[in-house]
Fold this sequence. Notes:
Layout: H1 24-44, H2 49-54, H3 60-73, H4 81-84, H5 89-93, H6 100-116, H7 121-137, E1 168-170, E2 173-175
Antiparallel strand pairs: 1-2
Helix pairs in contact: 1-3, 1-6, 6-7
The structure holds protoporphyrin IX containing FE.
The site of protoporphyrin IX containing FE has 23 residues, from α2, α3, α5, α6 and α7.
Amino acid sequence: MTTESSSNQPAPSQPPIVYFGSTTDEQLDNVRRLVDTFYDEMDQNPAYAVIRRLHPANLDHSREKFYLFLSGWLGGPDLYSPQFGHPRLRMRHMPFPIASSERDQWLLCMVHALRVLELPERVIEGLMMSFFRTADWMRNQADPPGSAKVGSTTGASNEPGRNGIPGITIKGEDVQ
Ligand code: HEM
């Protein structure tokens, strides 16, 4: 995989999984690498301590489920639904308090993992827009007054904020 700087190009029309490798085996190996990088970073970097605490001490089960889900979500084989049924992501995340700060920790951890894989930058931007929409829709807690940094699209936040994706620079603005 090569890095490419082309932030003003549109997101690619192919399913993102094609950027993960030229064969299904290679693609799935790289999805596994993405998931492992994501959870290793969450486990080791104190910047993600709040969302790390929401997960079990042993992350093996979390890694496996996220890998199975991401394969299909990225346009590859659907490995999740045959075992676990419809993802119902919002419902499955209800036991975990998710406000804007948890959403943003999750997104920053993900953009780090995508960059380790050295996917083309425009692919990362397209994926992060999709991850943002999904993560934002998962919020189930209002933000403490005055705490929200990034714009909301679902109304769970009590601040209008900016519409931006953590870790991604859009139109010259570094959104953190
Ligand atoms: C918004 C911030 C998010 C937080 C704080 C969060 C947190 C969690 C936690 C604590 C679990 C349970 C792990 C376990 O039981 O081992 C989980 C499971 C999961 N998460 Fe997230 N998550 C977030 C966003 C996302 C997003 C954006 C996606 C997909 C694009 C996603 C996909 C999943 C999947 C597929 C599972 C497994 C569900 C199951 O079958 O039980 N999560 N997440």
